[in-house]
Amino acid sequence: MTSAEGLAWRNEAALRLEFPPPGSRALTSHGSRWRALDWIGITLGAAALVALRSSRAPGRAHWGRMLGAAAVAASSTHLLYGTRPRSRADHVRTTIRIRREPQELYRFWRELKNLPRFMQGVESVEASSHARSHWRGAAPGGRTLEWEVDLIADEPDRRLAWCSRPGSAVFHCGSVRFEPARSGGGTFVRMDLQSAWPGSGLLDRALRRFRGTEPRVKQDLRRFKQLVETGEIATTQGQSSGRARRARAREGAC
Amino acid sequence: MLANCWYGKRDLRIEDVPDPALLNPRDAIVRITLSAICGSDLHLYNGVIPGMRAGDILGHEFMGEVVEVGSEVRGLAVGDRIVVPFPIACGACFSCAEEHFSLCENSNPNAWLADELWGHSPSGMFGYSHIVGGYAGGQAEYVRVPFADVDHVKIPEGIRDEQALFLSDVFPTGYMAAENCDLQGGETVAVWGCGPVGQFSIVSAYLLGAERVIAIDRFAERLAMAHDQAGAETLDYTKVDVREALDEMTGGRGPDACIDAVGAEAHGPGVLGAYDHIKHALMLETDRPFALRQAILACRNGGTVSVPGVYGGFLDKFPFGSVMNRSLTLRSGQTHVQRYTRPLLDRIERGEVDPSFVITHVRRLREAPEAYRMFNAKEDGCVKVVLVP
């Protein structure tokens, strides 16, 4: 990375600090990740252990167990739904090689209304000025959201970076670079995206990992590649199967 | 329409399912006139391949008549009679440009799954597990063909369905297996497995210049077919020690090239075979590489082991020391069918090969579950079953 590029990344990092994810207090510097609420959670957990231990004494047994159970419930709830800002934003970096020239890919991406064609969850993008655009999308729960996005960097044929405005319902900041592939032709497309949708807490993300799918951002980049190389996105949605037969039969019966 | 649907290990059902529809602009819908059961379908039947879902339509060897084309399909029209390759290829990515069609970068919607299991994803495939896309297959009356402009070969009048069908998979598979042996002319090639892929490997090895081809199996009808139709010398591994026999036939060196056309459900006699079967049953080993081990050990120093046999996961007790210390070349892959359809169709038209020789049974589509059972048990001299809708 050249020093100019290094400077650009630092500026972007600074912009991220400037646009903290929703639900967080004022961010301290990169340092301390432990905040007041975390310490409350840990204290409750310790209290739970003490209460359970002391509940062996007669008379205090019942209250001790109640207190212990309440403390366990409180601290585990905190852990699952904790409000540490970093843990709420998904941050994905991914690279893909596409058999097209950087200029063509930049032009496709810069036409922001193309983005919903491959970005899942994004229904529409309307540019309201040269650097501002209005996005509409569906949160994981299905609710429709709208937010404003600023283009914070635009280097023709090379790089685009954007970030949702502070206070937006959705935190969505990313950059995409188009680099000529060194050998064999084509372009390396490098995407760096941070996003947080309402309702995507630690538990949601853990469940997603357990269910086992690729981060949406990586999928989106694959879809972008398919779209520009073949003109369409590979799918089996809507194909025939024994399951389709059952779904039809169920509908018919209602 | 009727379709052969997978519902679990050895549980296939013929069901009335919705007709396929165009889902993308480069799709076509084909009315199937003939399809086949592949040896690798038996891995699905026996529950060896992960990633199947109840209701999946099977079948990746099929041909028929185009009945509908998407808005972006060029070079294909309603009424065309085509064979469809089993790997789905877009024709536009780096892999397709290099003619590695079974490695197409754009046709597997579940690429992330294959990435996890195999490192990187190959192309999507018809009728074969959600790891490679979960595309509905062609053991049915109709099928949806993605990238139809790239993924077809038109069959001229005068070539029967039975002669053309195997361009979809087994003939190119045997041919690529032989091509991977890097034959210069005059070699001795040994082929493990005399199912259809083995038969076409034998035929192709001769076409590519081999002087001797030795076929290894235990079923009399398969060995007879290999000898009478494909022209090979044969070894029954239940009657002779294969390694000793091969040494004797090659002056102690071993064959120049060995083809493993058996794959993951190899049958092995003796203690090592039992080891594989037990570990497989206990799910401690995903594949049983009995034939592959033998092919590696038998191969002459500096020779090539070519593996068209399908494997899914991980092998145990793999003789890699033999590979490394003796300069062996290992070549494998899912067939890049689209690369071979035109040249092999030319050979069929010129009368050099009539691929229909492997067919031993013709059944109706509705009889598919019973046909699978028979094929799996190798009953009634079964080598290849074709299905008429």
Care to describe what's here?
The complex is a heterodimer of chains A (254) and B (389). With 254 residues, chain A is an alpha+beta fold. Chain A is built from eight helices and seven strands. In chain A, strands 1-7-6-5-4-3-2 form a seven-stranded antiparallel β-sheet, sandwiched between helices. In chain A, strand 4 (144-155) and strand 5 form a beta hairpin. Helices cover 29% and strands 20% of the residues of chain B. In chain B, strands 3, 5, 6, 9, 10, 17 and 18 form a seven-stranded mixed β-sheet that branches. Chain B has helices at residues 39-45, 94-97, 111-118, 161-164, 170-179, 196-207, 220-228, 242-249, 270-281, 290-298, 320-325, 337-349, 368-377; strands at 2-6, 12-16, 28-36, 56-57, 61-69, 81-84, 87-88, 124-125, 142-145, 153-154, 188-192, 212-217, 233-236, 257-260, 304-307, 329-332, 361-364, 385-388. In chain B, helix 13 links the parallel strand 17 (361-364) and strand 18. With 389 residues, chain B is of the alpha/beta class. The model of chain B has no long low-confidence stretch (mean pLDDT 95). The chains are: A alpha+beta (254), B alpha/beta (389). At the A-B interface, helix 7 and helix 8 of A face strand 2, strand 4 and helix 3 of B.
Summarize this, please?
The complex is a heterodimer of chains A (254) and B (389). Chain A has 254 residues and is α+β, with helices and mostly antiparallel strands. In chain A, 42% of the residues lie in helices and 24% in strands.
